[in-house]
C-alpha cells in the first residue's frame, strides 16, 4: 500500500471514559530519523482516531513504534491514517533530544509553558481552561516541564515558565514511557533554553470534564507524556553526580564540535572511501548532544594548522566544552596527514588550546578524537592470513601514532581509534569500527561503537566510562565477526579533572 510518510507514536491516551479504547498520538519522522511538525492523532484503517485496545495490541503499537501512514479525507479533513507497523522503534531520549522550542518554522515544536502554547487559555485553581466561544489555539501542544508528579491519578507539574497546574491524566501506562504511581523521574532543567526531560502533550477536549465545572469552559487534559525515564542504575548515577565533581554542561549549545574529514588526497591512492558515513554519523550525534557542529573537508596540513589557530582565537566564554574530531591518515609519532601529503602533529593541534593561548577554554574540557593510524603494524594469527587476504579489499587501513602523545596540561582528553604503532581500519561501504561500526540511516538497532554508545549512555555515564565501553564493543565485535586478525584496540589519554557528562 502506498504511504505518505512515517511517524513515531509518542503516547497513547485514554479515549473518553471507556477502558477498552485509546487514541495514539504521533510525530512525523523524516527520512534521516528526525521528528518534525506538531503532534497529531493517528486514525485507523477505518478513518477513526479512537482505537480499540485489541487493535493496538494486534498491531504491536505502543510508545516509540515507528509506523507508516497515508493521508486520507475523513469528515472533511485530511487525516493521517495508519498503514503498517515497520517493526522498528525510536528511543524516547532520541525523540526528546530533537524537540525545539516553538516560534518559527514547523519543526519539532515544544513550548515552555501554557501561556506560550495556548495564548488564549487561562489557569485558575491549578486548572487550565478555555472559554467555549474561543477556539483552542492550538487544539493540543507539547509543554516542557521541570517538575512533575502523579497524585490521585492526576498529573501535577510546573512548567519552565513556573506555571503550576494539575491535569486529569489520560495517559495510558502501557509502553516504555508510561506513567506509574510514583514520582516521575524528571531532571530539573538548569536553563530555560533547554527542553527538559519531561514533555506533556496537553489537549483541550470537545466535552466538558465534569458537570460541576463551568458549562462555558473547556478544560485541558494530559493526553500523553514523554519522559526520559532512566532505570534504577541510571537513577543511582544521577544521584552520584551531585556528590562527585563534574564539569558544568548546561549551556545550549554546549560548545563547538569541529570535524575534519580528509578523504580525497592529491595522491589518489590515499583516498578514504567510506569516510563520509562516519562524518554523517558524527554530525548527527553531536547535534543530538546540543553541540554546534562545523565540518571541514579535505584540508592541507597548513589549512589544519590555520583552522585550529582560528578556533582557539575565538571567544568560547559561552561554551562548556570543545570537541575536535579528525579523520585522516596518520603515522608514527602521532602525525596527521593533510591532503597535500604533509603532516601536522597531534601535539601541534592540542597546544593551540592550552590555557596560555586559549583563555576562554581554561578549566573547560577539550576532547580530541582521532580516527587515524598510529603506525604500520597489524597483529594477526598466521593461520588466519588467508581470511585477511580475502577481506582486505573491503577493509582498509588508514595508514601511510608509535610513541603516543599525552596531554601535558589539565582538562584534555585524547581518544585514538587504535594503540600506538598500529593500523586503524575502515569499511568502504559503512565507515570505521571505532566511529560507528556500520552505516546509520535510522538510529534503530544495537550499533555499539562510539556513535551509539555516546548516544545511548550519555545521560547516566561520564565520557571516560563510555570510552571504555567503546573499547569493549569494538574488540568483541571483531571477535564475533571472525576478524581477530585485525586487532584494533582504541586507546585514550586523559587529564580531565572532573567527570564529563554530555
Task: List the main descriptive attributes of the protein structure presented here.
Pept_C14_p10, Caspase-like_dom_sf, 502 residues, 31% strand, six-stranded mixed sheet, alpha+beta, 10 helices, six-stranded antiparallel sheet
Give an overview in words.
There is one protein chain. This protein is of the alpha+beta class and 502 residues long. 19% of the residues lie in helices and 31% in strands. It has ten helices and 26 strands. It has helices at 53-58, 92-98, 114-117, 232-243, 275-288, 301-313, 346-351, 385-391, 450-457, 463-480; strands spanning 5-14, 21-29, 35-41, 51-52, 65-74, 77-89, 100-101, 109-110, 122-124, 127-131, 140-151, 154-159, 164-169, 198-204, 217-227, 255-261, 292-297, 321-327, 330-331, 335-337, 343-345, 366-371, 395-397, 412-416, 425-427, 491-494. The strands form six sheets. Strands 1, 2, 3, 4, 5 and 6 form a six-stranded antiparallel beta sheet that branches. Helix 9 crosses helix 10.
Task: Describe the SSE topology.
Blueprint: E1 5-14, E2 21-29, E3 35-41, E4 51-52, H1 53-58, E5 65-74, E6 77-89, H2 92-98, E7 100-101, E8 109-110, H3 114-117, E9 122-124, E10 127-131, E11 140-151, E12 154-159, E13 164-169, E14 198-204, E15 217-227, H4 232-243, E16 255-261, H5 275-288, E17 292-297, H6 301-313, E18 321-327, E19 330-331, E20 335-337, E21 343-345, H7 346-351, E22 366-371, H8 385-391, E23 395-397, E24 412-416, E25 425-427, H9 450-457, H10 463-480, E26 491-494
Parallel strand pairs: 7-8, 13-15, 16-17, 16-18, 18-22, 22-24
Antiparallel strand pairs: 1-2, 1-5, 2-3, 2-4, 5-6, 9-10, 10-15, 11-12, 11-14, 12-13, 14-15, 19-20, 20-21, 23-25, 24-26
Helix pairs in contact: 5-9, 9-10
